[in-house]
Amino acid sequence: MAKYGKETDAKWQKKWDDTGLYKFNRERSAKKFYCLEMFSYPSAANLHVGHWWNFGLTDSYARVKRMQGFEVFEPMGFDAFGLPAENFAIKTGVHPRDSTMQNIATMRGQLRTMGAMFDWDYEVVTCEPDYYKWTQWLFLKLYERGLSYRKEAPVNWCPSCNTSLANEQVDGGACERCQTEVTKKHLTQWFFKITHYAEALLAGLEKLAWPEKTKTMQKNWIGRSTGASIRFAVTDSTAEIEVFTTRADTLFGCTYMVLAPEHALVDVLTAPERGDEVKLYREYVNRQSEIDRLSSAHVKTGVWIGAHAIHPLTDDHLPIWIADYVLATYGTGAVMAVPAHDVRDFAFATQYGLPITRVIGRATPEVDDTLPFVEDGILVNSQAWNGLTSPAARERIVEQLAMSDQGRATVNYRLRDWLVSRQRYWGAPIPIVHCASCGIVPVPESELPVLLPYNVDFTPDGQSPLSKSEEFLRTPCPQCGIEARRDTDTLDTFVCSSWYYLRYPDNRNASAPWDPSHINRMLPVDMYVGGPEHAVMHLLYARFITHALCDMGYVNFTEPFKALTHQGIILGADGEKMSKSKGNAVSPDAYIDIYGSDVFRLYLQFGFNYLEGGPWSEDGIKSVARFVDRVERLADRVGELERGARPESLGPAEREVEYVMHNSTKSITRDIETFGFNTCISRLMELLNSLNRYDTEAERKHGGFMRETFAIFVRLLAPFAPHLAEELWAGLGHQNSVHLQEWPQHSESALVKDTVELAVQVNGRIREKILVPSDVDEEAIKAAALSAEKVAPFLQGTKIHKVIVIKGSLVNIVVKPE
C-alpha cells in the first residue's frame, strides 16, 4: 500500500464529503448519541494544539459510539461574539465582524482537514442574526417570567479610557490598555435571576455523570447555608441592619457591626463629622478587586462611620464600621462581628482595639480553645443560654429572636444573580426599548432580531458604543409609537453559549428557536467535553437556562448534559503552558505536513492521559510514526499471504493471537468509556506485536486467520486513525467504509487460556518457564516444576524445604543444603 501521509487524509476526506458518510439521519434519532465539544471562540486564525486535543480526541470517542450502532450527532460551530474582537478593532481599526468572520472561515477549513465527523449542515455562529435573534427571544422569555430585571450594580471603570472594563481587562488592579488604576462605578444593569433556581441546581447535580470535583465546585459556588437572619436596630434612626449568620450561638459575642463600603446604608448612617474619612476610605476600597479583598493574605482595613447598632438581646450599643473584607455582593452586605470566634473578625478587632468577648468554650478538656475559637462548643457569657451546646443554642436563640420579630431561621445561598449587561459593542443587543411615557418596553417577537449596526464608533469615551449610533438608538416605542431609545448594552457572551446546544439540532428553523418534539428526542446531550475552567460559569448558566426553559414548557428536561468530561492541558516541552511569547507553542500544521493528521491524533491519544495532559515530546510523535510504519508493513505482509479460509481448529500460536485480540477488544471497549485513549492505543500496539510474532515465529502460518485478525485490528484502529484505517480496509479488498462496520465484540471464552506459562524459581531466582494446563491442580504443577529440565541442576545436593505455588504466575522451590 502507498505510505500514509496528508495526501491520504485529503483522499478520504473528499470521499467522505462526496458520499455524505457522516450526515446525521434524523429518521434514526431514536438511536441518537449527542456528542458535543465546547465550541471555540474564533480569536485566532489557526487551530492550535488545544483545538486538536479537545475536538480530535472526542471525535475518536464518538466514532466508537457510531460503530457501536448509535446515530451519532456531532455538530460544530463558533462562539463568535466577545471582547477580543472588539479590542482588536480598537487597536487596528479592523471591524469585529470582519476579523471574526475571516477567522471563522480559516478555522472552518482547518477543522475540516482534521477528518472529524462534524456535520457542517448543523453549524451555528452566535454573531449571525439568525442565531442571536433567538438569544434575544430567550431574554424576552426570561423577562416575561420575572427572571430578568434591572438594578444598579458596580462595574470596573477606567477613568483614563473613560469606559467600563470586563474583569478580564483588569490586570493587577490596573487597566490592561493604559495601566491606569481601575475604580468602581455604579451603573444600572440587567440581571438574570439564577438565584431562583439555587435549590433546583443543587438537587440536579446528584443525577449527573459529571466529575465529582466539578459537582463540588458548583455546590460550593451555589453555597447553601442553613442559619438565621437577624435584624439589628440602629440608634437614632429607623434603619435596620439585617445579617445572615450560621452561628447564632455566638450572638452574645458580637461586639461591633461591619457594613460593606458599598452598602446603601453607609450614606444614610454616616455621621457628618465622619463623612470625609468615610468618603476617602470608600474611594480606596473602590480601587481593590474583590479577589484582593477576600484574600487571606490581605491586611483587613476599615473605618468607623460614627453610628451604633443595638444588640437584639442585650441592648448594648455596637459601633458600626465599614471594612474591605465585607462585600455588598455576598449575603446582605453586612456582618455581625464576633471576634472571639471568627478569624477575620479577630484580626480586625485586634488591629483596631475593638472588644473581644468569648462566648463559646471547649466541650471536652483535650480541645484547644485558644482564641479565635471557631468550632462548636459550650456557651459561656451568654446569659440564660450558658451551658448549652452550640447546636442547641442556635435553635433556642433563633426561637427567642423570632418571638420579638428580630430574627428567623432561613437558608442562604452564596450564589448571586447573573449580571448579563455589557457596555460593549460586539455582542447581542438587549431587546428592550426605553420610552419616556411607557418606561421599559420589550421589543415584540415579530420585530426580532434587533440588529447590531455595522457602522459604530469604537473609541472609548465613557459611552456605550451603541449609544453613539443614531440609526440604532432611535426607534418608535412598540406600545405608544412615540420616539424612544433602545437599550444600548449588549448581552454577556455567556448568554449566547448558555443555549447553543439546543439550537444545533434544529439550526435552520426560522420560525422558532427549535421544534420541541425534535429537541426533546435529541436532548439532553449524552457526552459533553470541555475545559474545567467553565465549571462555575458556562456549565452553571447552561443548567439554569435549561431549568427555566423546562418550567416554561419549551423543553421537557431540566439538565442539558447527562455526562461531562474535562480534558487536561498539553504543555510545552519545557513543562510550561504553551504561549508564543515563551517560544514553546506547538503548531499542529507543521507536524501534519510531515506525518499526516492521524499520526498527530494518535500521538495526542497515546502520549498523554486525556484527563491530565502533560508536556509535549518530539520523541513521542516520532515513536507513533514508527508504529504507523509497522502497521503498514504488516498490511503489506498480509497482502502477500494466501487468502485461505480460517482453520477449523486453532493451534497454540493462533490461540495466543486470538487471546490478545479478544483481550484488546475488551480493554479498548471498556477504556474508551472513560476517555482512556492512551491505554486503548497500548492495546492496539500489543495486538500488532502479537500479529508480528505470529508472522515471524509460527511454524505454520494460516493466511486466512492472519487476514481475519488483521481486519479486526483495522476496525479497532478506525476511530483512532480514521484515514489510515480507511486505506488499510480498502487494501483488504473492501468497497465500503470501515466506519460503517460494526464494533468488534470480545468473547469471554477466548480469554480462558488452555495453558498458562509459569515461572519456576529456586530460592527466588527464575530458572525455567513451563507450560501447564490452565485447569491443572496444585500437585501436578509442583510435579511439573520439580521435573523441569533446567531446574534439575539447581536441586542436586539440596533438600527441598517447601514448594510455593502462585496459580497463573509462578512456582518457588525453597531448598536447603543437605
Topology readout:
Layout: H1 6-19, E1 32-37, H2 49-67, E2 71-73, H3 83-92, H4 96-113, H5 129-144, E3 148-158, E4 163-165, E5 170-171, E6 174-175, E7 183-192, H6 198-204, H7 212-222, E8 224-234, E9 240-245, E10 256-259, H8 265-269, H9 275-286, H10 290-294, E11 302-310, E12 317-323, E13 334-337, H11 343-352, E14 360-361, E15 378-379, H12 390-403, E16 407-413, E17 418-419, E18 421-422, E19 432-435, E20 439-442, H13 470-473, E21 474-476, E22 483-486, E23 490-491, H14 493-497, H15 500-503, H16 516-522, E24 527-530, H17 538-551, E25 564-566, E26 569-571, H18 588-595, H19 597-606, E27 613-615, H20 618-640, H21 652-671, H22 677-697, H23 703-717, H24 722-731, E28 755-762, E29 765-773, H25 778-786, E30 798-806, E31 810-817
Parallel strand pairs: 1-2, 1-24, 10-12, 24-25, 26-27, 28-31
Antiparallel strand pairs: 3-4, 3-7, 5-6, 7-17, 8-9, 8-11, 8-16, 10-13, 11-12, 14-15, 18-23, 19-20, 19-22, 21-22, 28-29, 30-31
Helix pairs in contact: 1-24, 3-4, 18-19, 19-20, 19-22, 20-22, 21-22, 21-23, 22-23, 23-24
Structure description:
The protein contains 25 helices and 31 strands. The protein is α+β, with helices and mostly antiparallel strands and 818 residues long. Strands 8, 9, 10, 11, 12, 13 and 16 form a 7-stranded mixed β-sheet that branches. A hairpin with a 3-residue loop joins strand 19 (432-435) and strand 20. It is globular and about 105 Å long.
